Amino acid sequence: MTDPLPGAFAERMRARLGERFITTKAVCDQHAGAGMHLPALPPQGVAMAANIDDIVAVVQACRDFGVPIIPYGAGTSLECHVGAARGGVSLDLTGMQRVLRVSPEDQDCTVEAGVTRVALNEHLRHTGLFFPVDPGADATLGGMASTRASGTTTLRYGGMRENVLGLTVVTPDGAIVRTARRARKSAAGYDLTHIFVGAEGTLGVIADVTLKLHGTPEAISAAVCPFPSAAAATSTVIEAIQSGLPLARAEYLDAAAVAAVNATFKTDHALADTVFFEFHGSPNEVAECSERCRAIAQENGGGDFKWAVAEEERSALWRARHHAGLAIAASRPGTLPWSTDVCVPISRLAECIVATKHDLKAAPFPAAVLGHIGDGNFHVVLMVDTASRAEIEAAERFNDALVARAIDMDGTCTGEHGIGLGKREALVAELGAGVGLMRSIKRALDPKGLMNPDKIFALEG
Amino acid sequence: MTDPLPGAFAERMRARLGERFITTKAVCDQHAGAGMHLPALPPQGVAMAANIDDIVAVVQACRDFGVPIIPYGAGTSLECHVGAARGGVSLDLTGMQRVLRVSPEDQDCTVEAGVTRVALNEHLRHTGLFFPVDPGADATLGGMASTRASGTTTLRYGGMRENVLGLTVVTPDGAIVRTARRARKSAAGYDLTHIFVGAEGTLGVIADVTLKLHGTPEAISAAVCPFPSAAAATSTVIEAIQSGLPLARAEYLDAAAVAAVNATFKTDHALADTVFFEFHGSPNEVAECSERCRAIAQENGGGDFKWAVAEEERSALWRARHHAGLAIAASRPGTLPWSTDVCVPISRLAECIVATKHDLKAAPFPAAVLGHIGDGNFHVVLMVDTASRAEIEAAERFNDALVARAIDMDGTCTGEHGIGLGKREALVAELGAGVGLMRSIKRALDPKGLMNPDKIFALEG
Prior knowledge:
The structure is a homodimer. Chain A is α+β, with helices and mostly antiparallel strands.
């Protein structure tokens, strides 16, 4: 796997890309997709695409020489999605940063795969529209589509599954395919868009993404509320949703996560099971929704709402939430965080979080629990000393138990992080014969097995 | 294609199903999927499944004998989806009518494929929840999933694409596969659910469907508003959506559709381009939303809102809308309606409707235009005298032009009716190389080509 690429292949790449084809160790190592619990798997070369024709050229060259190809965005995925498991070329799309089209009347846009969510929202700033999906990291929209990302606002606006209207894809044989036209809905044949959303680059390369946009809410307010227990926090959110309250965000942080946020961001939130809420709508709607939510919280023993209404206050709140993982990491210097996630039916969420926290009490490392409670999705961030074999093994056992419990509750082994290399066995436990269907589709669309090989499942399994 | 089924096959079916395997002409003709512009294609036998084990048995027998198999629900699809294009067995799922599970806390349920949307909502009546997708006909939920159905409330609640959480599918080799577990979201591998939603039974048989449910709105009100033009009606809805108004329904009817509704339902709506609105929410939200919508309508020259607030009034209104097609049919006795649909980006909708109505002026048959204007989706119901070759040819020319215009506007050849046999050429015009990907998936999952053959695309193409 560390053999150099064939000389004729490298020549062809250089003829096309010039200095945008790079084989230096430093750059290859930057594209190795390491996670704490997963190995670094550097490619043998990195191709920097500037446009869709570059993608086609790289894909065709890889096809002709049998070289694996790994699409690469911001590299913020967590399960070694972008590692070069069988060597090959990392196809870096971060140079494709054009917003190709915004249609305010249709509330949609088309962007190249390398545009990040923050860059898109900056671009949209004066249109009255925004793109809501926020996985935390400033990921590229191509990568977010490829991993079926979601985030804090998915409760209200949906994730990438709901917000990708269509894609332009380069298939493994170098053909350019648009998966859908721009109608809001269609009953025209197989849903090609959703075949590629979440395929983690194993079926083709996403070149551009057509996205639903949403109207910027007229009014927004946010509030922080401490609860006596994880169950009380969860019940509040379930009851609010069942009452039809259109919560925009409902983010749970356990006391450990709150402590880490307080330390890093100099805040003074009570060290308790806590929910960060956000409400979007007209001023009346926001007032009504937040008041009804507050009443439900109080019935569940929640404390006072600490409001954040001004934009700077809200931004600070969500910056703290989005960087909670880093804050938690900082709480045990010298370790790397291992962030895992599961998602269960919301009726099982409280039980799942309580059992998870029980397991963590026995763990030899500190950890924090936080997540998108309204979707039944939560993360556990483990602060494992990678020099300690005992800690790593305990972390693996913890993660296995977490996943098994989620599946046993009819949930999923990953709500938003994806499978990559890290959760392939969990996927089989979750979907059984369904993984066989996935293999059939993979073999049909990528018969040479060159597109991000070994991710999601092993072809031989 | 009209040869009898192999004797040994029929024996095996009778051994399994007894009298639920039927080969009489009358029953086969009932399963022939005729549409006005499409031929009746009766199967050679009908198998009435009572449970998933029956489905497996029928699929395995068909596989062993090379007999085509056509999944059949309510038979309300419009493009000959259920015709037996290559003979074989119609697998009738209407006997599978159990609601397997309702979870109010999770706002979801699982139903067998033969449960209809009306039966489901009747079952949910006392739960405070409802299932919103309403294609008009009382279709089965398996059929609605298979055709990626939508309807009047899709604007607010989404269609089947958004509301199917998972499926149990019997694959062409007789394996039972669950496409997803019951978490609200998942990043676990390929999106198997969406591969089967909209596949029109060409990849396997849907045995049960897990659906999102929604809280019954606290308050509902509806209103009818006449407009001076189709463009004024369209602009009103676009502006309301852009203002962030969460319209539950916004249904356009042209004057011909209104006239037919008036005649059939003894109503006295003004003969004009008209929108039927509905608003859902808390009493305050409904009041605010409807008032803001009324103001936008008036700015666009709309007339007074005629309100329907009481449940009986609203039911009558939507019954009239859902049966508008039949009302239109009744306007020219002795003919059958040909109902077609397209969907375009909403920015192009007014232009598309105006051009469509221009074409209709020159047509030798009466027709009406109506549709889900907030989604950019509309129907044209053509009242063609099937005894007149000239009328049929004019209708075909009209439909071809309608589809070409929608695709030219970056829309789709069908927003909700599907491809079946009727729009296969349109699909190629719309998605080009994408149809090749669909064929690859079909060959991978159904190598013998027995599942509802010839639908969506010809395999040989």
